[in-house]
């Protein structure tokens, strides 16, 4: 019951921040007028500003944050380690590498091409990490260590690809690679929202599977769960959840690390906590994007820069907290 209440509160907070964000900018719109524009009221200019110009970005911040939060919960549950998030393990780097290959090598700059490249890159990275970490099953600590090593190599590959690109491509990819929602339109937001909605039923099913895996491999196997095939399917689902944000906004770090851990602390429970983690991820990303847009005057920061700045401090705190527990 507490999990449901926490999830609802986080969803409400995320929506409130989203409404506030829709009203901020050179043309300010009061929250009441924002709601009116969203429900079909208000004047034509307010509808244009709120619905056509600002809503795609805010909607993507909410949905992509939820996807990152759920992905982080899946990987932290699989590895049974709060550091087992896709940005630490290296799956974000794999998705980014796939997108870079599509853009810089194949010359395909379209949104769908980026999405396919990010998905394939993430899956290939996950399979490599899984196979290298597999020794009569996969253990969380070994999985994380192998993932960190693969991530380091992929970062070098990414830097080499950008260095070899021409200047205009390199500048465009570098901006996108910082994790930015600037310029997101309905042509990008619509398909991404559809994909995330399609993944929602799989996430709900995954929650039950993760609860069984949290009991331990032996117990889960005794209950009829095919442990390794289930774990591999969950990894693919997690990769799909991070591929969508990578295609739309580039790699956004630390949301998938922080959201599940913060959600568990609020719920005061253990386990995957997929829905609370998704709600927390939505709140964190829409808040970070709003701060990056409006907290520094005329200068806007990519949302990835804000999440890295906050996430770095959070990671230090988490490492210190884990150290005190040992």
Automatic annotation (TrEMBL):
Signal peptide positions (record): none
InterPro entries: ABC_BtuC-like, ABC_transptr_permease_BtuC
Keyword Transmembrane: yes
Membrane topology per record: Multi-pass membrane protein
TM regions (residue ranges): 58-76, 88-109, 115-134, 141-162, 232-259, 271-288, 300-321
Gene Ontology, cellular component aspect: plasma membrane
Compartment list: Cell membrane
Top-level taxon: Bacteria
Principal subcellular localization: membrane
GO biological process, one term: siderophore-iron import into cell
UniProt keyword terms in alphabetical order: Cell membrane, Membrane, Transmembrane, Transmembrane helix, Transport
Name used for this protein in its record: Iron-enterobactin transporter permease
């Amino acid at each position: 019951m507490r999990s449901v209440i926490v999830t609802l509160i986080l969803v409400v907070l995320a929506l409130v921040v989203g409404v506030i964000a829709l009203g901020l900018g050179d043309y300010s719109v009061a929250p009441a007028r924002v709601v009116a524009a969203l429900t079909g009221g208000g004047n034509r200019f307010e509808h244009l500003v709120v619905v056509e110009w600002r809503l795609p970005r805010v909607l993507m911040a909410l949905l992509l944050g939820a996807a990152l939060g759920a992905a982080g919960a899946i990987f932290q549950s699989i590895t049974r380690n709060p550091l087992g998030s896709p940005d630490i393990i290296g799956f974000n780097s794999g998705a980014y590498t796939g997108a870079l290959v599509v853009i810089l090598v194949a010359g395909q700059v379209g949104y769908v091409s980026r999405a396919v490249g990010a998905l394939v890159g993430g899956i290939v990275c996950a399979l490599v990490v899984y196979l290298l970490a597999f020794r009569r099953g996969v253990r969380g600590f070994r999985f994380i260590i192998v993932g960190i090593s693969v991530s380091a190599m992929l970062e070098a590959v990414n830097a080499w690809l950008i260095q070899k690109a021409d200047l205009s491509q390199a500048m465009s990819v570098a901006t996108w690679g910082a994790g930015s929602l600037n310029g997101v339109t309905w042509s990008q937001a619509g398909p991404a929202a559809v994909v995330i909605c399609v993944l929602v039923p799989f996430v709900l099913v995954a929650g039950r599977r993760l609860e069984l895996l949290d009991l331990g491999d032996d117990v889960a196997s005794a209950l009829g769960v095919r442990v390794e095939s289930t774990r591999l399917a969950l990894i693919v689902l997690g990769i799909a959840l991070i591929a969508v944000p990578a295609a739309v906004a580039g790699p956004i770090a630390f949301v998938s690390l922080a959201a599940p851990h913060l959600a568990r602390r609020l719920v005061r429970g253990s386990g995957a906590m997929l829905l609370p983690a998704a709600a927390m991820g939505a709140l964190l990303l829409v808040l970070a994007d709003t701060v990056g847009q409006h907290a520094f005057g005329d200068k806007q920061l990519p949302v990835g820069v804000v999440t890295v700045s906050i996430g770095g401090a959070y990671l230090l705190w988490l490492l210190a907290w884990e150290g005190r527990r040992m």
